[in-house]
Amino acid sequence: MSRNKTAEELKQHHIQIMGEKIGSHYHALWNELAQLYSKWDEYVELFGTKPSRLELLNSSAPLFFRTVQDSLWESTLIHITRITDPVKSCGKDNLSITRLECLVDVEIKGIISEKINIAVKKSNFCRDWRNRRIAHNDLSLALDSGAVPLEPASRASIKDALQSIASVLNTVEEHYMNSTTEFNVIKGFYGAEALLYVLDDGLTASKERKKRIAARTYTPDDLKHRDL
Question: Residue 206: its pLDDT value, please?
Answer without folding.
Answer: 94
